[in-house]
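User: Look at the shape:
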Amino acid sequence: MSVLGDIDRENRNIGVENKNGKIGQTWKIVYVDEMPEDLKKGEMNKDWGMRIDTPFYIVSSLESGR
């Protein structure tokens, strides 16, 4: 998976690409039970701009960590 264009901005598409070694293809899996306490299911995360309501989270390693 890759943040298309390696651009760190909200609402960027994610695509499947060949490995290119860029930061837009670096991800961290954060499981629900390891999320910080202030993030609860269904609440809007103002930093990420998305609702927390999935079993796990894929967080980009781009500068903002979305």
